[in-house]
Design brief:
Blueprint (H helix, E strand, L loop, with lengths): L9 E6 L2 H9 L8 E4 L9 E4 L1 H4 L9 H7 L4 E3 L3 H15 L6 E5 L2 E5 L10 H16 L3 E6 L2 H8 L7 E3 L5 H7 L10 H9 L5 H5 L3 H8 L2 H8 L16 E12 L2 H22 L3 E10 L4 E12 L2 H14 L7 E11 L1 H8 L9
Parallel strand pairs: 2-4, 7-8
Antiparallel strand pairs: 1-6, 1-7, 2-3, 5-6, 9-12, 10-11, 10-12
Helix pairs in contact: 4-5, 10-11, 12-13
């Protein structure tokens, strides 16, 4: 078994349909109904931030254009996000986490890794701690969470998604390789739709198929992520849970089945990416001053172009005009662009943390 000799005890907690669940908790008239948080009422624009499980039965999911969501689920109720409320609830969730460990790595307002190898209450069992955390969230906050438990972050994250909602899944050291071998490639963390399609075209459908390829082969076909695929299918992920991680930049990107060759074709794709980026920024409470566009060409060469503003930005309305300025100046017309990315950096948050937290301890929530 290719894992560490001394196993960590890692829990990945993922709240169930977090924003929608908070809305249904706070407003009884939404309970039991298909609810979509984000976008615009009647699906006039924007993207879905999250959807209740009632809406998910119709195929609605996060990052879907709200027009598509409305078409799939005509009876859905659209509500605007209340991010201040979600942040406050996230803080309450983290207070529950801190009863058991201070080694917490937030990924967003609604999910985090916890290292409970040496827990504060001497419970020793990661499964028992996960159950206590889930019970506290349900009893005190009237929300549900799903937990994945394993010896590393990658497997714990995958496990938390298996029995949603309100699930708890433990994958022990002796079970990891068999678990990863039977896993569909699209379930691997970091494998998007385009990569999964490429893998399927190569006859790679499960972890077992990936395991037949050498590390060199995987890197050749998939670049640097190939090394990660080689390791994780064998149960290897030695990354530690990183508490108080400071975000330097936030970005989104997409790879296209057909190359984009004109700026006119790139602009609507960049608008969609900007919308997704704005959702991430709102979830994390970040505002930045520097916007960066990333272009990957058909020959895999990459260029980036950036533009800084005195204004702090975290919305599509403030970011997209900068995106258009950068695109207008970028040398990409009549080039074959395979991937586009939009990112933002130079955050206000770092300076603000110094003011709010003079003792130097970084607090993300």
């Amino acid at each position: 078994m290719a894992v560490e000799a001394t196993h960590r005890k890692i829990i990945h907690i993922d709240m169930d349909a977090f924003y929608a669940s908070v809305e249904q908790r706070d407003f009884p008239e939404y309970r039991g109904k298909p609810l979509i948080v984000g976008g615009s009422p009647e699906g006039r624009g924007g993207v879905v931030a999250t959807a209740s499980y009632e809406a998910r039965r119709y195929g609605v999911h996060a990052a879907m254009p709200s027009k598509t969501a409305q078409r799939l689920c005509p009876g859905a109720i659209f509500v605007y996000p209340r991010f201040d409320t979600y942040k406050a609830v996230s803080q309450q969730i983290h207070e529950i986490f801190h009863r058991y460990t201070d080694i917490i790595e937030p990924l967003s307002l609604d999910e985090a890794y916890l290292d409970v190898t040496h827990d504060k209450q001497g419970i020793s069992s990661a499964i028992a701690i996960a159950r206590l955390i889930k019970a506290a969230i349900k009893e005190e906050l009237r929300l549900t969470a799903s937990a994945g438990i394993s010896v590393n972050k990658s497997v714990a994250k995958i496990a938390s998604d298996i029995n949603k909602p309100d699930g708890l899944t433990f994958i022990g050291p002796s079970k990891i390789e068999a678990f990863m071998e039977q896993l569909a490639v699209e379930k691997f963390h970091g494998v998007g739709k385009v990569t999964a399609a490429k893998m399927n075209a190569m006859g790679l459908h499960t972890g077992s198929d990936l395991k037949k390829l050498s590390e060199t082969d995987l890197i050749q076909h998939f670049g640097k992520p190939g090394k990660f695929y080689y390791q994780i299918v064998r149960g290897i992920d030695n990354r530690a849970v990183q508490p108080y991680r400071e975000t330097k930049s936030v970005s989104v990107e997409d790879t296209y089945q057909e190359d984009l060759t004109t700026k006119a074709a790139m602009l609507p794709e960049l608008e969609l990416l900007t919308e997704k980026l704005a959702q991430r920024l709102l979830r994390s409470g970040l505002k930045g001053r520097t916007v960066t566009l990333k272009f990957k060409f058909h020959d895999f060469t990459i260029i980036t172009r950036s533009h800084s503003s005195a204004e702090l930005m975290n919305s599509k309305e403030t970011i997209f005009p900068i995106v258009k300025i950068i695109l207008d100046k970028a040398p990409v017309e009549e080039k074959r662009v395979r991937l586009l990315g939009v990112g933002i950096s130079n955050f206000e948050i770092a300076d603000q943390r110094k003011k709010d937290n003079p003792d130097g301890q970084l607090r993300l929530f």
